[in-house]
Design a protein that fits this description.
The protein has 10 helices and 14 strands. Strand 9, helix 7 and strand 10 form a beta-alpha-beta unit.
Length: 302
């Protein structure tokens, strides 16, 4: 079996017909048909059945698709490694569901430009899962709103204020500024406890002291914040500015004045990590914080 057979097989799968696949590959259709027949003989399984509108995969073909894609990916990666002369190192970065998209993209682009030998994998997890993921070795590096324990190394990347994303049709729509005493009787959507660090619950307690009749709605969400808010007719969403940027532009974000509690972003990694992980750590420390956030100390804490 040759890589060519698998590449041709995947194109036939994607196109759903020998004719369209042959045109895309710039080969004659009879020749492509023979290649597929050769592959079936080598595997001892029939891969396609003719259907009214092209080719239909058999169970054997469906089982082969993911395996073939992985083989092609590894073959292509091998060529890149040989061409560059530098072995690639895979590094996993964990982030929370509300991470600022522009900031994360800046990390990716900086890694490509400054450390091209690194292959970066990004995993999205809840705050508690991120720290546990680094401790267990599932993740190499994480950016989390929870400060890790002493067994891990960390730096404070930035702090940012809590605020409210104000519904354009809710009872708070006329406010130009908002303090935590202004939201009494308003319906406020907030992240569920398992998604958030202790600071989030402290902020809610602060708000409750001056606005004891807030009608809280708790839910697990990230990209579905707007749908959740619409579902419960929320007047506002308790969140940071980065999370608010995922909402329609008509939802104005206002920082909560006089609120002492702030959100934090901690960069975490294991002591004794390899060179690739440490390079990513230094690279992330050099990226400017998201809009509205204040730079942290970035001095290592152990």
């Amino acid at each position: 079996m040759e890589l060519r057979h698998l590449r041709y097989f995947l194109v036939v799968v994607e196109e759903g017909s020998l004719g369209r696949a042959a045109a895309r590959l710039h080969v004659a259709q009879p020749s492509l048909g023979r290649q597929m027949t050769d592959l079936e003989h080598q595997l001892g399984q029939r891969l396609f059945e003719r259907a009214a509108r092209g080719m239909r995969m058999t169970p054997a073909a469906r089982a082969l698709v993911a395996h073939a894609r992985e083989i092609i990916r590894l073959a292509d990666a091998s060529r890149e490694v040989v061409a560059s002369g530098v072995p690639r190192e895979r590094v996993s970065l964990g982030v929370g569901p509300t991470v600022d998209a522009d900031w994360l993209l800046a990390v990716v682009e900086a890694a490509k430009a400054q450390s091209p030998h690194l292959t970066l994998r990004i995993d999205e997890m809840l705050s508690g899962e991120l720290v546990n993921g680094v401790a267990s070795g599932e993740l190499d590096v994480a950016v989390s709103s929870r400060r890790p324990g002493d067994q891990l190394q960390s730096v404070l990347l930035w702090t940012e204020p809590f605020g409210l994303a104000i519904s354009p049709s809710g009872r708070l729509k006329g406010l130009d500024g908002v303090a935590h005493g202004d939201v009494d009787h308003a319906r406020v959507l907030a992240f569920a406890r398992e998604q958030t660090p202790p600071e989030h619950n402290e902020a809610i307690r602060e708000i409750q002291t001056e606005s004891p009749r807030v009608r809280w709605e708790f839910a697990r969400f990230s990209t579905s914040a707007y749908a959740n808010a619409r579902a419960v007719d929320a007047d506002a969403i308790l969140c940071g500015e980065a999370a608010a940027r995922r909402l329609p532009a008509t939802w104005r974000w206002l920082p909560l004045g006089r609120l002492r509690t702030e959100m934090h972003a901690w960069l975490t990694w294991r002591p004794g990590s390899g060179d690739g992980v440490l390079q990513l750590v230094e690279l992330i420390k050099g990226i400017a914080p998201p809009s509205g956030a204040r730079l942290g100390s970035r001095a290592p804490m152990t």
